[in-house]
Amino acid sequence: MEQTPLRRGDDGIGFLLRYENVAWYEDGTVRILDRRIYPIQIQYVTCRRHEEVAQAIADMVTQSGGPFLAAAMGMALAAWEVRDKGEEELLSFLERAAYTLSHARPTTAAKMGRVTERALHVARQALQEGKTGLALVEALRDNAIAQIEENYRRYAAVARYLADQIPHNGTIMTQCFAETIVGTLLRELRQRGSAVKLFCPETRPYFQGARLTASVAQDMGFDVTVITDNMPGYVLEKKGVDLFTSAADIITLDGHIINKVGTFQIALAASYWGVPYLVTGSPNPSHPDLSSVVIEERDPDLVMDALGTRTTLPGVKGYYPAFDITPPKLCDGVVTEKGIFAPLDLKRYFEG
After folding, report:
1. Which positions ≥6 away from 96 have C-beta within 8 Å?
2. Helix (H) or strand (E) holding 154
């Protein structure tokens, strides 16, 4: 009897979150959908060296969860670059590539390091099994695909817990682009027959909320409205928002949430209006508290630009912290694949 092929973790999810449109290694290149311009244009950045993948991550070609798959695919590309070298030189090259890829952006270096360390482990194991050249490249590519598959299936569980907290046909507000949870949550709500409405702050200066989150929601058939970044406080009350939710770049063990700048002010407004704020993700043991967190500050010129159009006079200065910090008292729960935890009780996540 012919076996039915297993459904991929991205089955039924919008175009933007299909594996091949996040980051994909094939034939000596890594192709990354350029999220800086999607959906205005659908273009891919093609990287032929792992340093180009790291630069694409630094330049925000891919954002949110995208850099983690890009880094894993970048390790396959690094193996391609030294496919004809001996084992010692090859391993040394891969270790340097792992550092370059994991440190493309400072705030997420520890989390990215787990991705590249996993790839190094796969490479060492493959070499012990006598896999070299293209066989090693294939092993690292398979590892990258396995990684995103695991991530999507893990977030399918997160989505079920989060969906339980959203009233049927309710209204939610998002922040920035929460990557996998956006697609898995909307798929879960669609399966439940819940016609949820979304309000998406635009998320300056890259407009991830407007271009990415809203695009996935529209692509998947949901009612979605974009608002500017100074509207959440008014909209939370005026439009009867039931829940504010975001992902997080880092959740410290003591319950602080480091996410796209602007999350803190929405959490403040949500608290004022009595709207629950639930963050999705898992606590990061590399960050026991705020002292271990580096807030990345990006090119200030970017805040004086809107999709290629300068918005200020010469001489005006800008300031661009990429993330802000939401304290635990403004968060009603951390939604994980193991359930929902209070921000001040995250050590329980690691028990059992």
Report:
1. none
2. helix 133-163
CB 69 within 8 A of CB 33: no
Put simply, whether the predicted model's pTM sits higher than 0.85 gets the answer: yes
Residue in 10, 229, 249, 332 annotated catalytic:
249
Judged against a pLDDT cut of 60, whether residue 3 lies above it is answered with no
Residue 159 tokens read as: 């989505």
Using CA atoms, how far residue 202 sits from 56, 74, 187, 207, in Å, is: 22, 30, 22, 5
Residue 352 binned pLDDT confidence (cut-offs 50, 70, 90): low
Asked if 278 and 331 count as a contact pair (C-beta separation under 8 A), the reply is: yes
Q: Examine the residue annotation and report whether 164 is marked as an active-site residue of this protein.
A: no
CA nearest to 260, candidates 175, 174, 172, 200: 175
CA distance 247 to 279: 5
What does the H/E/C string look like for 95-136?
A: HHHHHHHHCCCCCCHHHHHHHHHHHHHHHHHHHHCCCCHHHH
